[in-house]
Amino acid sequence: MQSFGISLDGTKNGETFAPAKDQFQEELVIRPLHSGDIYASFQFRTLWDTDFLQEGQKKVSHYRLFPKSLGQVLSKFSVQELHISFTQGFWRTMQWGQPFIPSPPGAELWVWFHDTVSDVDGNWKELTNVLSGIFCASLNFIDMTNTVQPSASFKPLGLGNATDHRFLRYATLPREIVCTENLTPWKKLLPCGSKAGLAVLMKSEKLFHSSFHSQAVHIRPICQDEQCTSKAWELRQTLNVVFDHYTSGQGKKEWSLFKMFSRTLTEACPLASSSKVYVDITDNPELSPATPLLSQAVVLGDRRTYSVYDLTRAETFGQLRSFNLLLRWKGDNMLRPLLHAERYVAGFGLQTGEIHTVIYNNHPYRAFPVLLMDSVPWYLQLYIHTLTVTSKSRDNKPSYIHYQPAKDRHRPHLLEMLIQLPPHSMTEVTVQFERALLKWTEYTPDPNHGFYVGSSVVSALVPSMVAMSTNFTQDQPLFSSFVPVKEESSYFVRVYTEPLLVNLPTPDFSMPYNVICLTCTVVAVGYGSFYNLLTRTFQVDEPSPPLAKRLANFIRRIRGVPLLA
């Protein structure tokens, strides 16, 4: 039996080739939130034991589970690591806790290129245009005016400990709107698409009618065992959504898969080696149907207990061949996030202002350092000498500062600082800026709406309340294995602040319209009258005879008598 010229014995047109060394896993995590909302996190992982960079001469052409479009991108542009996310809404850390994989509002893209690339900027420009077409997004608006090269904030999450930040590019589009046209190509990258498995639940009408929605793609090389004797490329697609029980008309803490997604599960993806649904039962919610399978994991410094539903087992679906999970809970307990950050703009008028970034350390007795990164557009001219960092009303001198000034219409500001946060404290970072006056062609179609400034990024190793697991196993849940844990006493957290909306000095764009109308009126009246005088033909009109003479001629015409002269 053959399909598309490939036989089941591993031959293609009579030629043998190595068997596919790839696998696919899918996972859904459901976590009730103390606010009454519910957090659903989809994770899909595709592992492929190949090397796009070293085998570039062989032109890897046989793709089974790994998307060919992304594989060709990695090979053509020598990409070592790629992370892209599209987010609608803002993650409310103080109400929902920490997400499994954070992302800022809008679009975010950061890429590590291979150290053999000679023209990184050229590859970056072409890569953004290609990704713009793949995901139907506005990534083609990424250029050097909104691209930075962080020196310490974004280290590789896969193999390699790159320190040369010349091969790193980072950019955000905080105004990017996420909609169905972005979700559709994202689902097409899955081996089963949206026809089977967990992706069946991804109904656009439900996903976008939520408080928060984020979809991402992460590609990196990883080790397949603890000794790293075999390596593979990992493609991880994640989709996080928070359903609001008020906007959805629930009004009580009771959810089901059908209420959330308007669909139920009928089968696992046939190509998946693992397909599971995890439900957080740490706060003792009621589950129906119940499952005897339980799993414990330390996630973001907190030990959680999960009920596990294995979709590869026939008994999970029952006799109706349909799996609908009902969830009720009452608990309102939630650990306060140990790290939280926010940002806002202060000042008045349209000439100067001040950016305030506030970082909270809620740990009762432990101090720890954080790495703050700010990327500010060139039209906000920072006064770096006004930079102040205060903790508990005292100056807090950063131990590391990296600042790259902006160039008008060429590159943005980049500010990175390593700050020590005292225990149970609030640290405030302020810097003053002056607004630039843009050319009239540089304004957006709605300039009075304002201009967006991307989120600040806070990265830290936060002390853990419980011992983190450093053992590497392939059986770990996907939601707890994205960021490798190297120490039992701490875990890595990345926090994004709100994007800023800043007003710039804006000319009155109605004045050209008024001038055009006035000028056209003057030209029409003045030139029209003058042209009329020049082109009109004048003729002498003889005066008409008096009334008596006209009556006499009328009578003579009737009688047939000659008319009077």
Automatic annotation (TrEMBL):
Gene Ontology biological process terms from the UniProt entry: attachment of GPI anchor to protein
Highest taxon of source: Eukaryota
Gene Ontology CC terms, in alphabetical order: GPI-anchor transamidase complex
Protein's recorded name: GPI transamidase component PIG-T-like
Organism: Sinocyclocheilus rhinocerous
Biological classification of the source: Eukaryota, Metazoa, Chordata, Craniata, Vertebrata
